[in-house]
Amino acid sequence: MAGRGAATAVVYKTGGSALTMDKLIISGGKPLQGRVRISGAKNAALAVICASVMSVDKVKLENVPDISDVQAMIEIIRHLGAEATWLCESTLQINPPSRLKADPPCHLVKKLRASNLFLGPLLSRFGYTKVSLPGGCNIGVRPMDLHFKGLSSMGADIRIEGGFAVGRAPNRLQGARIYLDFPSVGATENLMMAACLAIGQTILENVAKEPEVVDLANFLNCLGAKVRGAGTDIIKIDGVPELGGCQRYTVIPDRIEAGTFMVAAAATRGSLVLENIIPPHVEPICAKLREAGVEVLENGDSIMVNANGNLQPLDIKTLPYPGFPTDMQSQMMAMLTMVNGTSVIVENIFENRFQVADEFKRMGARIKVEGRMAVVEGVSEMHGAEVRATDLRAGAALVIAGLMSRGQTGISNAHYIDRGYHRLEDKLRSLGVEVSRS
Ligand code: UD1
């Protein structure tokens, strides 16, 4: 039942853009206080749903966030021939297709960058895939050369035909030794999935070490795959003829949702307890908050964030995990707009991630962007304004800026935020925020 409205009361047209209720209105100026439970990780859930089409049996996935990116992914796998049923709020049962019914639908694939993750699973299980070169957030050039090169060296024939990536592997893929020029998350995941059903051993070098890669490897191993080394620079996969038999798998908590709430608490000089967290996954964010003077205390699977008084400016560089995540850069920039002194942010992963700076400026921020570097001069006050989300994390950052500012902030293009934050408004309301949609 994708789109059953659990995420928000937003009305969507299937496959199109949000038609109504696409503006989030926030009354700011109050510290965030209370407890919030973090949902399942968007990026892990998307990869695990893709991988589930390689299984010959049903899989039951727990802690899946009901967000619009997941809804789009569910629509895609249904189109491919799978059955997907929500058993309860965050438990999704998938009955994978036994043969490929259709190509992934163009309009959804274009919308969802993570749909590129079907290349590996479909090629290795069905020997064929045709995916429209995907879209997703408007955060810069997002090439797929590493995916294509890796799959080609496993014996697939990949061609770009009329805007589509068409992959053919009439014979089973062959294990290979593949070095990634950059530790791309998507390429690591795609190649790891493809290798699970390939003949022989695949060695992937210079791979991404993100927690979502490890979660995907754990899910694949639950399906009977032989993946070793996920979370290090080298992953070794011994191919097996068939995957299946994983009755139940629980997706990890979302470290970026957690980070967003942590930064929101710090930015509003609030005090928040976050539950359902794996603390090492948020360590790069905790380290920066502590450096700024925020109290961050870990306790089992929860974290307390407490901020009052003046914070210190920061220097931040985004890097692959365990470096500071690009997906938290905009939210940190929001916080730093009101931290006295000069902060410097260097974005090394996606070049367009500074578009949000112009929106912050409408609210009174002082930011200078030069290529991949942004210099933020902290101001003592920001004011609510009409602003526009340009991507998912920019949207989250504008929510934080709205919470910090005096008066009301209207954030249009809120559908970007719905892509990645489960029940955001409910969670904010429970923390004392006045928030509505129009
Ligand atoms: C994933 C995450 C996204 C996160 C990003 C970096 C999902 C669904 N999305 O995106 O939220 O911001 O990791 O942590 O998991 N690159 C190439 N060639 C390729 C592939 C990538 O040059 O074939 C480059 C990209 O242009 C970019 C960098 O590698 O500069 C990182 O991209 P990648 O790690 O692949 O990000 P995604 O998997 O798309």
Content-based structural category: alpha+beta
- Main β-sheet: number of strands, strand sense, barrel status? 4 strands, mixed
CATH architecture of the largest domain: Alpha-beta prism
Rg of Cα set? 21 Å
CATH topology of the largest domain: UDP-n-acetylglucosamine1-carboxyvinyl-transferase, Chain
Tell me the name of the CATH homologous superfamily of the largest domain. Enolpyruvate transferase domain
Order of strands across the widest beta sheet?
21-22-1-23
Low-confidence stretches: 1-18
Bound molecules: uridine-diphosphate-N-acetylglucosamine
- The average pLDDT is 92
Number of helices: 14
The domain count comes to 2
Q: Please report the total strand number as a whole number.
A: 23
Portion of residues within helices: 25-40%
Distance between the termini: 25 Å
For the record, the CATH class of the largest domain is Alpha Beta
Could you tell me the strand content as a percent range?
15-25%
Short account of what is shown:
Helix 4 runs parallel beside helix 6 and helix 8 (255-267) runs parallel beside helix 12 (392-404). By secondary structure, this protein is of the alpha+beta class. It folds into 2 domains: 11-38 and 254-437, UDP-n-acetylglucosamine1-carboxyvinyl-transferase, Chain; 42-250, UDP-n-acetylglucosamine1-carboxyvinyl-transferase, Chain (Alpha-beta prism).
